[in-house]
Amino acid sequence: MLNSKKEDFLNYLKGKNLLIVTHDSADLDGFVSALVLKFFLENFFTNQNIFLMFSKLSKYTKNFVVKFLQKFPDFNFPSKNDENFSNIDVIVIVDSNNLEQIKLSSMLNLDVPFIFVDHHLDLKKNHEGNITSLNLIFENYSSTAEIILELIDNYNFDLPIPYKYLLISAILTDSGFLKYGNTETIKHILNILEDEIEFQDVLLLLENETDISKKIASIKGLQRTKLIRVDSWLIGISHVSSFGASVASTLIKVGFDVGIVYTKEKSKYRISARAKKNVCLKTGLHLGKILNGISNADGGGHDGAATLNGENDLERNLNEIVDNIKRTLINYQPL
Ligand SMILES: [Mn+2]
Description:
Radius of gyration: 20 Å
Mean pLDDT: 92
Bound molecules: manganese (II) ion
């Protein structure tokens, strides 16, 4: 990340009342990025109001908070969103560049300008109010937490140990425990660990006993899976009532090259897609781009992991996604 980018970002925020938010059902990366950014900015700019707002935390994040508090009982997580946000000058949105994933409270004045800090595919949606020149969107990072870490690193800012645990936890979970990471990801983790933190202690915090409803979703999802073979590639399509993203990942673990799982809830539906990293690299498959290309729904994500939310035409959109995936795989010519 260019130093001038960081400076422009911080210079703009100086002296303003800030609100930091993340996507709905905040995962660890969104949650931690928001917390650490707030902590850094509060120390970097003194006498400035910096607020946080979370619409909802994911179940995993909630479980993590419980374990984290056993280790650091004095750590102050933000509790309720009871502040008055009427005097906010600028909103920083972390871990998303898609306004539809952000549930802003009705208390908030929506005319407030906003800036994205994110590592997902830059949708370049030209949202009105977005100061695009200040966005810190870098698709080559495996987590937003690493972008925050690099921002902080420039200023010789020493983070307290609990915040270091938070950052490593976010980086590990978002990089799929380094499976989707790169050399930079490992350097970032090493940089935080230094000699102070024992890696195994962090892993303990991230252990999670799978609950029974998730196990049942995986099993049912597998039972319902339709197999499509394209040359030597295997695509699996299934549906469940919840845990769609996790079931799509299960399909990959079982042996599919691409897993697509949809969930329906009242009039809305969600399609979760996952692909093996080496399949994406070999064939140029980019699920985020394919799902983003569906015109009457809201999709996006990374090459190997993407989501689409829609209300109409589930079947048609599903077919279009599968056709696009097939076309990419068929067009691939082995060397
Ligand atoms: Mn993330």
